[in-house]
Amino acid sequence: MNIDKLKDQHVQILTAVAQMRKLVRSGIAENAEAISRLVISISGIIKLHLAREDAHLYPALAAGGRELAALGSRYQQEMGGIAGSYLEFSRKWNTPGEIHADPEGFRMEANSVFKALHQRIQQENIELYPAISVLA
Description:
Elements: H1 4-26, H2 32-62, H3 66-92, H4 96-101, H5 103-132
Helix pairs in contact: 1-2, 1-5, 2-3, 3-5
Pfam family, one: Hemerythrin
Domain Hemerythrin-like: 3-132
InterPro entries: Hemerythrin-like
């Protein structure tokens, strides 16, 4: 299975998060418009990534034997919670007005959501993607 697109999407997400961190350090309220655009952009990448995983990755793992199927099932279940948290975050903070009105609330939620997202991406890169290489 070719996972290059999934890996590329990880890079896109992490790059956008790094851009957001720079904006946050420069001032959340002052950069609310650019931050909201990044929230929307990251949401789009994540939605595409999840769709690709659901359509290609998890079915390939399910067909790859008992161990790979169990691994895929665990990752898919875990991702449901992470994705739900991010999508809730993105619905709340996708406008400059919301971000400008509560910069510290945005910071707290962003730190939590992006930490979980970063950990998940690292976990996929270290554990899941190498396991998939046997399906190539």
